[in-house]
């Protein structure tokens, strides 16, 4: 039996159209245009691609896009000064500083300088604390996108065994909190986990976020499990080309799983859609308006 393929690309397009509708209403009813500022320090080729597609989709949903490209050698003080300026700018409702930052910067200090109400990545310690205590937070975009796909596909997740593979602050840890919020029994596996295949085999829900191509094998998957593949790994392909593969061995896992997300076209597009949803949420909250429907946790 072959798994249902969860179409993140189509789901993301649907979320963006719902965001666009609510942005239009915000404009006509309240004269507010949500604005998203993206800051890119240095010129990593992959980062350039993401920043461009974020900028394009921001404009497509009717929001204002502010792009700030700073040279690699920018000082941390100069970056902090830009963040202070964006924090104070009423036209900017969301701020995203593209990670990773150059090695000479203290990323924690930079992220924690963002006004937490504008922190659409949900990486500020105050948003991490709010999520960890079950309070209203800005939720990191990738885990939020994964949760939306899981809810759509599974509905009630109460009592299900969930495993998150990877313990990063960006995906693994916030994902585990979100699954706890759905009343799953949650485990986090990582590079030191013993007998990881057996641990994964118990899970009804698998979220793979390790950043290692095809690490999760087909025979690690419990028959019928739902598999969310967060990995976006660029690997060499035939003819000197490159292609994207996930953290899961897709061809093998799809023969066992009940449902699985593809790479590309799974989690990646959902991440960007959730960034736009978070920016809309931030604009609503900043103006004392109700939360957008169906776009927050
Ligand atoms: N502060 C910060 N926040 C981020 O959210 C953030 C970041 N820094 N740094 C870089 C990573 C990476 N990231 C992606 C988003 C969408 C796709 C995406 O849409 N991928 C497409 C394929 C794109 C392609 O072909 O390269 C897909 O999976 O279908 C990929 C990667 C967000 N990141
Ligand atoms: Mg790890």
UniProtKB/TrEMBL annotation:
BP term (GO), one: purine nucleotide biosynthetic process
Function: Catalyzes the oxidation of 5,10-methylenetetrahydrofolate to 5,10-methenyltetrahydrofolate and then the hydrolysis of 5,10-methenyltetrahydrofolate to 10-formyltetrahydrofolate.
Domain of life: Bacteria
Catalytic activities: (6R)-5,10-methylene-5,6,7,8-tetrahydrofolate + NADP(+) = (6R)-5,10-methenyltetrahydrofolate + NADPH; (6R)-5,10-methenyltetrahydrofolate + H2O = (6R)-10-formyltetrahydrofolate + H(+)
GO molecular function: methenyltetrahydrofolate cyclohydrolase activity; methylenetetrahydrofolate dehydrogenase (NADP+) activity
Entries under InterPro entries matching the protein: Aminoacid_DH-like_N_sf, NAD(P)-bd_dom_sf, THF_DH/CycHdrlase, THF_DH/CycHdrlase_cat_dom, THF_DH/CycHdrlase_CS, THF_DH/CycHdrlase_NAD-bd_dom
PANTHER family on file: C-1-TETRAHYDROFOLATE SYNTHASE, CYTOPLASMIC (PTHR48099:SF5), C-1-TETRAHYDROFOLATE SYNTHASE, CYTOPLASMIC-RELATED (PTHR48099)
Any matching Pfam family: THF_DHG_CYH_C
Pathway: One-carbon metabolism; tetrahydrofolate interconversion
EC numbers, comma separated: 1.5.1.5, 3.5.4.9
Gene: folD_1
Family: Belongs to the tetrahydrofolate dehydrogenase/cyclohydrolase family.
CDD domains reported for this sequence: NAD_bind_m-THF_DH_Cyclohyd
GO cellular component: cytosol
Subunit structure: Homodimer.
Keywords: Amino-acid biosynthesis, Histidine biosynthesis, Hydrolase, Methionine biosynthesis, Multifunctional enzyme, NADP, One-carbon metabolism, Oxidoreductase, Purine biosynthesis
Chain sites annotated for binding NADP(+): 166-168, 232
Domain Tetrahydrofolate dehydrogenase/cyclohydrolase catalytic: residue ranges: 6-121
Domain Tetrahydrofolate dehydrogenase/cyclohydrolase NAD(P)-binding: 140-285
Protein name in the entry: Bifunctional protein FolD
């Amino acid at each position: 039996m072959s798994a249902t393929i969860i179409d993140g690309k189509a789901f993301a397009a649907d979320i963006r159209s719902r965001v666009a509708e609510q942005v239009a209403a915000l404009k006509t009813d309240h004269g507010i245009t949500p604005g998203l500022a993206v800051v890119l320090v240095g010129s990593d080729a992959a980062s350039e691609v993401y920043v461009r597609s974020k900028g394009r989709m921001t404009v497509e949903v009717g929001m204002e896009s502010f792009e700030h490209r700073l040279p690699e050698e920018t000082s941390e003080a100069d970056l902090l000064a830009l963040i202070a300026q964006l924090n104070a700018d009423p036209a900017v409702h969301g701020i995203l500083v593209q990670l990773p930052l150059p090695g000479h910067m203290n990323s924690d200090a930079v992220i924690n300088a963002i006004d937490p109400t504008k922190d659409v990545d949900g990486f500020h310690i105050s948003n991490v604390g709010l999520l960890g205590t079950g309070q209203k937070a800005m939720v990191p975009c990738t885990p939020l996108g994964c949760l939306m796909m899981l809810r759509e596909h599974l509905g009630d997740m109460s009592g299900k065994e969930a495993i998150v593979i990877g313990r990063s602050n960006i995906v693994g840890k916030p994902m585990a909190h979100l699954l706890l919020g759905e009343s799953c029994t949650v485990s986090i596996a990582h590079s030191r986990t013993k007998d990881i295949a057996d641990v994964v085999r118990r899970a009804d829900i698998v979220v793979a976020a390790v950043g290692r191509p095809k690490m999760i094998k087909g025979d690690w998957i419990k028959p019928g499990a739902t598999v969310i593949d967060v990995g976006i790994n660029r690997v060499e392909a035939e003819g000197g080309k490159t292609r994207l593969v996930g953290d899961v061995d897709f061809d093998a896992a799809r023969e066992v799983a009940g449902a699985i997300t593809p790479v590309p076209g799974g989690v990646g597009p959902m991440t960007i859609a959730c960034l736009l949803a978070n920016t809309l949420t931030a604009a609503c909250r900043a103006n004392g308006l109700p939360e957008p429907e169906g776009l927050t946790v």
